[in-house]
Amino acid sequence: MVLYSQIETKFMYQHTRYPQKDPVIVFRSTPSQRNATDKGRILLSIGESVASWKRTGDYEVEVTKSDEPHVPSDARYMYEILSKQGHLLTLVCRSLGTRLFKTWSAMTGNVAGELRYVKNVRSVNQTYFRTFGRVNAKKESANTVTLEGCARRRGASMADSIELDFRNLKQYSVFSGQIVAVEAINPVGDALYVKDIFAKAYAPSASAPKLESKINVIVAAGPFTPLNNIHYQPLWDLMEKIASDEPHVLILVGPFLEYTHPEVQDNLIKDTHQEFFEKILTRIMESTRKSTQVVLVASNRDAHHEPIFPTPQYAVFNKKLLQNYRNLRLMPDPCILDVAGLKIGVTSVDIIKHIGKEEISNVTGDRLGRLADHVLAQTCFYPVYPPSEDLNVDTDLWEKHAFFDQQPHVLILPSDMRCYCKVINECLTLNPERMYKHAYARLSVKPALGGKWSSSNISCEIVRV
C-alpha cells in the first residue's frame, strides 16, 4: 500500500540502525524521581471495582493464536506489483461494500425495488439511489471528500471517483481509506449530494469465553524507556509489580528498541540491536513467574525487526531462552489472542492517531471512542489508505492478515493519544498509553454465567506503575 520508493527509502535507512561497537550502555535500576503519590494512581477505570489484583487460586490458562489468519514468521514482502495492489484494494472494497449494503438494507427494511442500488458512483440520477466506495479525504483542499468506486470501466486505468457533498447531513465522520455506503442524488454528474451515509459493517461477535475462573491480564505498550536514557526503568518497575501480583497473562506490545531513539540513532549501544533486545527479553522472563503467560507483540518500529506492516513475530536466536521459558509467546502484529476462548485483538500501530489525522467530521462528543469505533466498523486493524508516511504497508499481507471475521472481546489499540477504556459495540477497547509514561492497563475477566457473555464481565483500570 506504499510506493516502493517509500519502502526502499526506509529499508536503506534501516542499514543505519545497526550499531558500531562503541560506548557501553547497560540496564540500571535508578531511583524513581516521580512523586510517590503518583505511583499506583488509577487514571481511569470501567466495570466493577476489583478488591485485589493479586492472583488467588491455582487456575492457569494457555495463550494461543486465534483461528484468524496471522502473518507467518517467514513472510515475504516488497514483492507486490501495482496491478495486484489495485486488484486487492478493489476486492476489499467490494467485499466490505457488499456487506454494508446488506446490513443497511436489513436495518432500514428497504423493499426490493424501492431504492435503487448502483455500482457506478458517477451514475446521474435525480432520484435517490445507493452506492458504495472508498473515501478519499483531502484536508489540504478545504476538506474535500471524494468517493472512489469499486468497479473499473473496461479500458480505464482506475476506478471512477466523484465528490461528496455533505450539506444535507447533520453529522458525519469520514477518513481516507474508509469503505462507506451512501444514499444520494447526482443531478448533473458533478457530485453526489448525500442524504445518508452508512459505515457500520461490524463483524459478528466471538463466542463466549470458556473461562473456569477469574483471570487477570496486564497490558503495557512500548516504547518502554524515555528518550533521554536507555535504562528501561518504567519497564523494570512494572516487572516488580508483575512478580508481586502474578497475573495470568502479561501482554507487552512493542516497540522495545524504537529506531528513532537518540541512542539508537547515534549508535551508542555496544551490542547489536538483536542482542540488546534479547537481553531485555531475558530480564523480563527472569522477573516473571512460570505461571504467568508472557506475550510479546511485534512492532515495525523496532530497530532489530522487520520495518513492514503487517509484521511477523519477533525472531529470537538464543534458543536456550526459548527452551528455558515455555511461558513465552511471540506474536505478530496484528494478532488475535485466544485465552480459553477470550479473544483479545492487538496491534502496535497507532491507528487511532492515524485515523485522527485523516478524519473529516461534523460531529460532537467522544472523539477517541469514535476513532476506535471506526476500527471495529471496518473490521480492519488498519483501514487507512493511503497509509501514514511512517508506515510501510504490504498490500498482500494487509489483505490477508489485517482483517478479522469475528469481533474480539477485547481490542488493544496503543496510541500516543490520551489513554481510554471504553465499551464499543460490546467490545472493550483500550489504549494503555505508553510505558515510558509509567502507565499500563490491567484487566480482570470473570467467566460467563450460563454461557451468556457481556462486556460487563471485564473490569479495566489504567494505572501508574
Question: What report would you give on this structure?
Answer:
This protein is an alpha/beta fold and 465 residues long. The protein has nine helices and 21 strands. The protein has helices at residues 4-14, 82-108, 233-245, 262-265, 273-286, 319-324, 351-358, 367-377, 395-401, and strands at 42-46, 63-65, 116-117, 125-138, 144-148, 161-165, 172-174, 179-186, 191-198, 215-221, 249-253, 293-297, 328-331, 335-339, 342-346, 360-362, 410-412, 420-424, 427-431, 439-445, 458-464. A hairpin with a 2-residue loop joins β18 (420-424) and β19 (427-431). The protein starts with a helix and ends with a strand. The relative contact order is 0.19. Its main location: nucleus.
Major beta-sheet overview: 7 strands, mixed
- In total, the number of strands is 21
- Rg over C-alpha atoms, rounded to the nearest angstrom: 23 Å
Number of helices: 9
Strands side by side in the biggest sheet: 1-21-20-10-11-12-13
Indicate the proportion of strand residues. 15-25%
Please state the second-level CATH architecture of the largest domain.
4-Layer Sandwich
- The stretches of 5 or more residues where confidence is low (pLDDT under 50) are 1-25
**SSE string, helices as H and strands as E:** HEEHEEEEEEEEHEHHEHEEEHEHHEEEEE
The total number of structural domains is: 2
- Shape verdict: globular
Q: Say what the CATH topology of the largest domain is.
A: Purple Acid Phosphatase, chain A, domain 2
Helix content: 10-25%
